[in-house]
Amino acid sequence: MRFDSPKNRLLICRETDITCTGGVVFIGDGHTGKTHTALNLAQYKKGHFYDTTDCTNLSKSVNLEFDYFILYSNIEKYKVTISSQLFILPGQKGRSEIGEGLAFEDAVDMYRNVRSINDVVILIMTYNLADVKSFQNLEYWLNRAIEHELISDLTSIILLGTHLDHGLFVTTNDSMIEEGKRYLLKSIEDRIGIKIGSDRIHSVKISNTTREGLDNLQDTVLNSFFHSFELIDYINSRDQVAKIEQKIINQENEDSFI
Q1: Is the residue at 1 inside a domain?
Q2: Looking at residue 207, what is its pLDDT?
Q3: Which residues of the chain have a pLDDT value below 70?
Q4: Is the bond preceding 6 in cis, omega lying within 30 degrees of 0?
Q5: Other C-beta atoms within 10 Å of 121: how many?
Q6: Mean pLDDT for the chain?
Q7: Is residue 176 part of a domain?
Q8: Residue 197 falls within a domain, yes or no?
């Protein structure tokens, strides 16, 4: 398998260690839990979750918030390290007046200047399960993501529904979510010609209050990196090359004794 750019810039493999690097961007309406979710995701490396009262601890630049996270996994004999930069874009549409912080368009401009990782591996489109309007507004955020080139051949998408603990107030059902996924895939292909497979778009429901679904989110982030980088195919290809090289060495050794 040929491993083309930008993947070859974002993946390092040394014997049995693989490191994948890429950006994870949260996008969606304000007050949908983007920051709290990012805090919880980043803190997996420290073994605990943030409470709601801890949400001010994330590194931030006005209204552009960012942090780093590392996840570990294993594929066969390989230890896989996912090293990513998290960006949380504000949910205020358009641009802000001078002195009023940053709205989305302002933050995207800053994001391009401060990011150390240019490639968005995962776009997390966030909405409140108890606010159907925030789900419908994902169409707007998709348009902004396309306009600002936050989606590429490498990108996986997670539709993240928050406030799962609101129970009876949850108004966004599974059929709506599945329809939304189909709409996203078609819109992306029609507008920018990128065909995202079903293994690269996911739906996750969480509660940052009760922690329900956060393990699933972590697993989905890991799997999204695996699929975006086609790690299984890459490992199989690498192992196959190693076998061929070893076979050549063995043959040369045999010939030297003749």
Answers
A1: no
A2: 96
A3: 1-6, 44-64, 99-100, 116, 238-258
A4: yes
A5: 26
A6: 83
A7: yes
A8: yes
Please check whether residue 2 lies inside any domain of the structure.
no
Q: Which residues of 163-175 are buried (b: 16+ CB within 10 A; e: fewer)?
A: bbbeeeebebeee
Q: What is the pLDDT of residue 59?
A: 43
In the Cβ-directed half-sphere of 167, how many Cα atoms lie within 13 Å? 2
Report d(CA 257, CA 238) in Å as an integer. 29
**Regarding beta strands 17-28 and 60-61, do their DSSP bridges make them parallel or antiparallel, or are they unpaired?**
unpaired
Total-model pTM: 0.83
Domain limits at 77?
A: 7-256
Residue 80 CB: number of other CB atoms within 10 A?
21
- Which of 132, 139, 162, 118 is CA-nearest to residue 25? 118
Strands 78-88 and 64-75: antiparallel
The DSSP secondary-structure symbol of 98 reads T
Contact 10, 229 (CB under 8 A): yes
The CATH code of the domain that includes 238 is 3.40.50.300
Give me the torsion for CA of 75, 77, 83, 86, rounded to 10°.
10
DSSP assignment of 29-72 equals -TTSSHHHHHHHHHGGGGT----GGGGGGS-EETTEEEEEEEEE
Query: The tokens of 197 are what?
Result: 């497979």
Tokens of 78: 């390989």
pLDDT at residue 130 in the model:
96
